[in-house]
Amino acid sequence: MKRWVNGFTLIEVMIAVALIALLAGLVMAGFGNSQKNARNRQTITAVRNYKTALGAYLADRGHYPMPEQASYEYCLGLGYKDLIGTPDGDCRGGAANITEHAPLMDEISDYIGNPEPVSERRIWDFGRSVDLYGAYLIKDPLATVDGVSSSYFIEYGLEGESRDCVLTEVVDTSVWPATTRTSAKSSYTSGGFTICTIALQSPD
User: Fold this and answer.
1) d(CA 117, CA 79)
2) 165 and 158 Cβ atoms separated by less than 8 Å
3) pLDDT of residue 123
4) Dihedral of CA 57/58/61/65: which sign?
5) Global pTM?
6) With DSSP H G I counted as helix, E B as strand and the rest as coil, what are the percentages for the chain, rounded to 5?
7) 133 and 193 Cβ atoms separated by less than 8 Å
8) Strand segments (E) across the chain
9) What is the mean pLDDT of each run of 10 residues along the chain (204 residues)?
């Protein structure tokens, strides 16, 4: 085998290049996972803050915001943007989009401070053909947990399949809202992402 001036054969050089490419791929994959984990931690922290704020609101007033409305779905936070960075006011897109609602944020502003979006990373929910990013508050008087009425929920998405939703009182909403059951860390995976739903304390 002919050797180059530096003493390496062509095969040896090719093997070295392949190993470098493999190592670079592993480093980039690890970096990508680290970024996902960091974004998920930010989402969980933001959702926890909103959950705490809503709990404090309930403790002070005996009800959640806008009790006069029979049902609703509103974004938690203001300033959501679309994929190209244009403000569009949606935290869930698609046919059943969910929008920001300034009156809701005004009602809890004393408990949450600056109502920033939970996340700016869109997650495609194949199960319902919608894109979700951030989190939203749901009031559904027909929903139950273990046969007991539980009308208020927060739903949010995490990047990666079968992620730990971390927060307690999570319910399975793979069929929403007809089937709702309790589980300490339940969720469902949709297209490489994990959709989490928290049942809030009942005001009754």
Assistant:
1) 6
2) yes
3) 62
4) positive
5) 0.72
6) 30, 25, 45
7) no
8) 72-75, 90-92, 98-99, 123-125, 130-132, 135-139, 144-145, 148-149, 152-159, 170-172, 181-183, 188-190, 193-199
9) 58 75 62 78 90 93 93 90 74 78 93 83 59 81 68 84 69 43 46 77 80
